[in-house]
Design brief:
mainly beta; 2 helices; about 0% helix; globular; cell outer membrane; Beta-barrel_TonB_sf
Length: about 550
């Protein structure tokens, strides 16, 4: 037992071992050939089964999403003009002359705008006999426009009341010391409604309106008119368009010398217009039907050419010319608006413009100064003039000349220097060759207008205007040999000033006839002397 235990190897004992490491030994493997044969494509299995899918509609019972837009919290700046839809102008001056102008507009609610206006200007004393030469003017109006997607509907209602006194008498006559002049009140009620396209740059543009006018005065004059006006144009290209203008006027005048008269007037003017590279041509015609009765009339139907042409060789210089015939519509309302001291008339006639030829030059210098100088010569039938009534020298009669030749030289300029000065002026000189009358009674031989606008500071606006007129020949009333005379030159200087105190308030002052001239536009009717009005303007 004891000997075996001594010779046996104990567990965990490390015995001596020998390892041989050879660095030069090389292992080699036999070469195995590579196979390049492709794997064959197996046929795609086919199935005779049909697969049908049935799609069932599925709706969720959910309400649509409701979007509630909210205004931005930021306070954006607004134009102050939009805050003042109301306007009031109040003033007073010598000759007992109150001035009131009120205007209010609604334009922010919806797709429409509405405006209302009331104005009154009175001169309750005048240049002759105090109240004997008073006059006043009142106007009440309402207008509005409704805007649709492609067109707009517009209209207005107006009432005009103008009161004049027949003061063309001699106040130095002792027999007339207690004389009280008769006055005449002109009432005109007008209604207008029309339709017009909104996009004025479209190929087709149109504007048509219907208007009604009711007129009467304090005596026997009554004239009602129904009119229809239209304008249509179509652009074939950027340079070529056609246009048609139309006018229909039906009037029923009455006075002490005539009743139950229907004066009908219809005019249509087709034309073609071409504009390109400074060249502008317009070729058309005026086709007119009117039923006035005159001794020298050949037909109620008239066809006249209407041709205008201009060519700008450069911005600084261009030439123009034209030749046109027409029938100028004249109503009693037109005459009495021009001469408010008109008495009963024997006849109402349109003016036949057999032709009017014109030519001249025009241009612009530095984009600031614009000018035009030209001459015109025409032949007219039934051109109207005014003459004092032989039985009632306070009123005027209408006179007509059967064949009138008129030569007119004219020039006009406009100049705008920066933002503080504007100039506008015009000169006209007329020569008349008459057939039935001695002279062109109560028409000026020459006329000059001049307007100046100054803005020396942002809050101050000044206007200085001048109007000159001369060569007015009149026929002396009660003259044995039909003697004529020329009225003194009319010279009227006007000055206006407007000072802005705040955005809401401003003050104004107006002065007329500053040289205190006894100007007579119509024989024996001198105008007021120096006359001024001052007041306040308020926006609300």
């Amino acid at each position: 037992m004891i000997g075996l235990d001594v010779l046996a190897q104990q567990k965990g004992e490390v015995q001596d071992q020998e390892f041989i490491i050879r660095k030069d030994r090389v292992l080699t493997l036999p070469v195995q050939p590579r196979s390049f044969e492709r794997i064959p494509v197996l046929p795609t299995p086919k199935s005779n089964a049909n697969f049908n899918y049935k799609v069932e509609p599925f709706f969720l019972p959910l309400p649509p999403l409701e979007i509630k837009p909210e205004a931005a919290t930021k306070n954006f700046p607004r134009n102050l003009e939009e805050l003042y839809p109301g306007f009031a102008k109040l003033g007073y001056g010598n000759y007992s002359s109150p001035l009131v102008v009120l205007r209010y507009n609604l334009w922010e609610d919806g797709d429409y705008n509405i405006g209302a206006k009331v104005s009154h200007e009175g001169f309750y004393t005048g240049p002759v006999g105090g109240r004997n030469s008073a006059e006043n003017h009142t106007h009440v109006g309402l207008d509005g426009t409704l805007f649709k997607d492609y067109f707009s509907l517009y209209g207005n209602v107006d009432y005009h009341r103008d009161e004049f006194n027949f003061y063309g008498y001699n106040p130095e006559n002792v027999l007339l010391s207690d004389y009280v002049t008769s006055n005449n009140v002109l009432n005109a009620f007008k209604i207008k409604a029309g339709i017009s396209n909104l996009e004025k740059m479209s190929d087709l543009n149109y504007d048509a309106n219907l208007n009604i006018r009711l007129f009467n005065d304090s005596f026997s004059a009554v004239e009602n008119e129904v009119g229809l006006n239209g304008k249509f144009d179509f652009w074939f290209s950027e340079y070529l368009k056609s246009e048609v203008l139309g006018n229909l006027s039906l009037t029923t005048p009455a006075d002490t010398t005539y009743r139950d008269i229907n004066r009908n007037y219809f005019k249509i003017s087709p034309a073609v217009v071409y504009r390109k590279s400074g060249l502008q041509l317009r070729a058309g015609a005026n086709i007119v039907f009117e039923n006035d009765v005159t001794d020298n009339k050949k037909s109620d139907f008239h066809v006249f050419p209407a041709i205008d042409a201009s060519y700008m060789l450069s911005d600084e210089f261009g030439i123009y010319a034209g030749f046109e015939g027409d029938v100028q519509r004249k109503t009693y309302y037109d005459f009495v608006t021009e001469n408010p001291f008109l008495g009963p008339s024997d006849a109402l006639l349109n003016t036949i413009q057999n032709y009017l030829a014109k030519a001249g030059v025009k241009g612009s210098i530095n984009g600031e100064f614009n000018y035009e100088i030209g001459v015109a010569y025409g032949q007219f039938a039934n051109m109207h003039f005014y003459n004092t009534n032989t039985t009632d020298t306070l009123r005027f009669n209408l006179l007509y000349d059967s064949d009138t030749r008129m030569l007119n030289y004219h020039a006009k300029v406009n100049w705008e220097y920066q933002d503080w000065y504007k100039l506008s002026g015009g000169v006209n000189y007329y020569q008349y060759n008459l057939t039935d009358l001695q002279a062109a009674f109560h028409r000026p031989e020459w006329e000059i207008t001049l307007g100046n606008t100054f803005k020396p500071m942002s809050k101050l606006l000044i206007q200085a205007n001048a109007h000159l007129m001369g060569g007015i020949v009149v026929l002396e009333p009660n003259a044995i040999l039909d003697e004529t005379k020329t009225l003194p030159v009319i010279l009227d200087l006007q000055l206006k000033a407007d000072y802005k105190i705040t955005d809401r308030f401003s003050v104004f002052a107006v002065g007329n006839n500053l040289l205190n001239q006894s100007n007579q536009r119509f024989l024996n009717y001198p105008v007021r002397g120096i006359q001024g009005v001052g007041g306040l303007t308020v926006k609300f």
